[in-house]
Amino acid sequence: MKIKFKNSIPLDDSTLWSKLKAGDEKAFSLLFEKYYEQLLRYGNSFSSDTEKVQDCIQDVFADVWLYKNTLNENAIVKAYLLSSVRNRLARIQERDHIFRKTTSTDSLDFLFDFSIEHQLIIDESTADKVNLLNKNINLLPSRQKEALYLRYHQGLSVEQIADLLDVNYQSANNLLHRALLHLRKEWNSCIPLLLLLSPSVL
Amino acid sequence: MQKRNNYTEIEDFLIDESFQSWVRTNTDNGNWEEWTLENPKRAKLVEDARIWILAMKVPSDTLPAATLQTALIATWNKIEQKETLTKKEVKLWKYNWLKSVAAVLVFGLLASWTYSHLFTANNSTKIYNELIDENDEGLVEQTNNSNNPQIITLSDGSSVLLQPNSKLSYPKIFVGNERRVYLSGEGFFEISKNPKKPFLVYANEIVTKVVGTSFRISAFSNEPNVEVVVRTGKVKVQSNEKLSNSNKNKEIILLPNEALRFTRQNSTFNKITDITKDATLVHSIRTIEQLSFDFTDIPVSQIFKTIEQAYVVNIEFPKDKLKDCHLTSALNDQPLPEKLKIICKALGNNTSYEMNGNQIIITSDGCN
């Protein structure tokens, strides 16, 4: 059973964060409930082992509670959690790589695929454009895809993305820029063709 | 809402939450529809941005509340576990601290007593810290704060599997005619044979003396007993003569699968001739003591696997090249470096190993 608190105004992250730091268990639970699912989805895009990802996220939260005194008061909670989960998974992955004796020492690969909002598309020409763009987005290098995800889905700033991916601001900016540039180029070369082929234009 | 008049790129729209919700859920709180129609150039941009959002869907199926609650409970359990772990450490420290105070008091009393009785040995309980203070060989201390056993190799080729919450002090290089190490906590020792240089483990009140063998010592300063369990070879245990007067020169000899328990409270030794009948010992047996290293025509990959399990290490080796290699070898009595050396030698001249912490890399061109 889920307990809902009546008349309670949803508290913003920074209030919950400082309450948590002061030892408020409810604030901890609220943040957990708010972010667990997103973190799970983010984590699952790096690893197919859901159980491992769950375990990892729970460890991240456990550490948040255990080391609450040392947490930064002004942290952006979402960015902090995303980044903690990512780092922890990277560490585990690295360990597993050694253990399984694979030669690859790559860090995390963002294996997530964006999907299409089918139910919002009414006309065929839009559908074609969306399909094409979706295909091209999913063909992007994993890091660019991850940057897009963090920027446009998690709403992180370029600075926060740079922190999270452990690169400097310029590199993070380049990642996003290159992704968009590439997509736009593909887009411009294909759309006229699409328009020609699409019967709805005729 | 004013800032949208300056939007010139698709990206500007993509990060606008109000725009996103207009596209996704058709809730037009920002009057996007109207704003779009104001300007045809703008309409094109908005249409493109809309397509981007439609093409970048992230599934948002909600987790069942029960799953979320289970996860939350699991997290609290983890917190509890980790908390008790740290508390234990604190407790141990407190205990040690109290012990030191007690030791100082006892020492004070005994000093006066000793003085009046002309240097008869004192009876104070010296613990690890005091023992290593007496050693002037320039000791290295290794502490295992992790949750897994840690392998330590010593300069004489001996290896020690150190259990969590334990520490071992040892000289970088053994000099003199004795090899002396100091243990607090638990470790499994595999000693390289050298009859000329006996190996001595100082663990709380007892000293364990061997020439070449394998055995385990459990000597946590916060536990009432000190235990020695012998796996192979012969081991002599005596109380640390510097520390006690009652058991002076008493030496107990242990053979394989025998054990000894030293009860700290009354300084008594208790020899256990059948370790399978002792309830506490049966439970405390570690993986490494259960595994057999007597291999008869066993694939080398299997042997490596056994070593990985026993020593909690990772072994990297050329799988293809060693695919058809089988070995017959009795490695029970050997420290880890010796085991690896023997395996490499058996495999052929071009096989060698490299050990770095708990990483072992085998290079090989295949077996003979």
Automatic annotation (TrEMBL), chain A:
UniProt cross-references to NCBIfam families, sorted A to Z: sigma70-ECF
Any one GO molecular function term: DNA binding
GO BP term, pick one: DNA-templated transcription initiation
Domain (RNA polymerase sigma factor 70 region 4 type): residue spans on this chain: 137-183
Domain of life: Bacteria
Keyword Transit peptide: no
Keyword annotations from UniProtKB, A to Z: Sigma factor, Transcription, Transcription regulation
Family according to the record: Belongs to the sigma-70 factor family. ECF subfamily.
Protein name according to UniProt: Sigma-70 family RNA polymerase sigma factor
Xref: InterPro entries: RNA_pol_sigma-70-like (IPR039425), RNA_pol_sigma-70_dom (IPR014284), RNA_pol_sigma70_r4_t2 (IPR013249), RNA_pol_sigma_r2 (IPR013325), RNA_pol_sigma_r3/r4-like (IPR013324), WH-like_DNA-bd_sf (IPR036388)
TrEMBL record, chain B:
Molecular-function GO terms, alphabetical: sigma factor antagonist activity
InterPro entries linked: FecR, FecR_C, Ferrdict_sens_TM
Residue intervals of the Protein FecR C-terminal domain: 293-362
Transmembrane domains' residue ranges: 97-115
Keyword Membrane: yes
Name this protein carries in UniProt: FecR family protein
Keyword terms: Membrane, Transmembrane, Transmembrane helix
Domain FecR protein: start-end pairs: 152-236
